[in-house]
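In the lab's daily routine, each protein ends up as an entry in a very long ledger. A line of letters takes care of the sequence, but it says nothing directly about the fold. The fold becomes a row of whole numbers, each drawn from a learned catalogue of backbone shapes. The protein below has been through that process, and both of its lines are reproduced in full:
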Amino acid sequence: MDKVESLGEVSGWADLNRDILELIFNKLEVMDITMGASRVCISWFLASHKKTLWNTVDLTSLQELDVSRSFNFKDEEKPIFFYKHRVDDDEGLTNLLTKFISWFFLDLYEVESGIIGISLMNLLIEITKLSRMTPKNLFFNFNSYIQENGLKFAAETMPNIEKLALPIWCYQTEKSLRFAFSQWKNLKTLIIAHEHSFTGIFDFKAVGESCSNLTNLKYLGHLEEYKTREIVPYLQSLKRLSLRCSLVSYEAVYCLIIGLQNLTMLNVSHCKNSYFHAITRSRDDFVITTATQKLENFILCPQDCRICKDHQCCYSWSYHAEDWRNDEIKELAF
């Protein structure tokens, strides 16, 4: 009797209305759909292909497990991050078969009972099997390391991206960046965390030459005046720019305001100069005057900003990892 009831219950879940399944799956994170729900049964597998589930591929909540080997910034050997996913710990036949298939076809490893690890590249492969060319938004985890083949694969299989968030460890060659952005011709919003001493120069020329629709940029990093020469000539279509929480020079901000002819909004809230002084209305009069005269909206901190006071002596990437999704410019929040 127990077996009959058990079979009946499984059948009920398998026959659940597709519209109801879609509502449920919309509440799940990408990893849970890709590595969990889509593998339950044929009905759930087919429901996992619904286009409405894949408008946004949000990888920001991935839980980092480990780095496969030690990492030296100057070394050619780069890290591979793995991300964890909980699987059913029941050792029934269905679960054993699922585990066997997963281990055979994917680069997975068991971290502990009920927890598996998967590399970012293999996760992208599994996502694209379900999403196909649907995604318009792609958000990476702040601490993800994207290898060249990973970025190229994402660009080739998700060519319709309009809003993209790239992480701090996006170490790419000029060739790989040029290829990726040549695929993303519909890109309207680019959010990047960048530190040139770790990951080299970001090729804004490659972005500007391919992404003529790009009107929104969020740059989180260290921005000096010389770097504006990499942005201004190639991103003249920019209307909204956020440097929120970056280290910036007054000269760099001034050059961006003057040089970007179509710029209407600039966010420098929680920014600091190289001496870790917050950019405020009283301190930087020549920047403020220029910005208020030219721009429709210039966003900066009040003198008593709590966030700036809490981080007045340091430049914390751990803080950025927690906060980089936020922005006072709505188009640049995600």
The first helix runs from residue 2 to 14.
